Amino acid sequence: MTKRIFIFSGLLILVLGGLAYYYLTTVNRDILRLDNGNTVTVATDKNFTTDKVKIEFGLSVNTINRQNDLDLFSNKLKYTTVYDGGSSKKIKTDFGENDFLITYDDKYYLSFRQFIESDFSGGYPADNYYSFYFFLKDKQLNVKVDITGDSPMTFERPMNLISNAKLLRCNSPIDSTKTIYNMIELEKPNEYK
Question: 148, 45 in Cβ contact below 8 A?
Answer without folding.
Answer: no
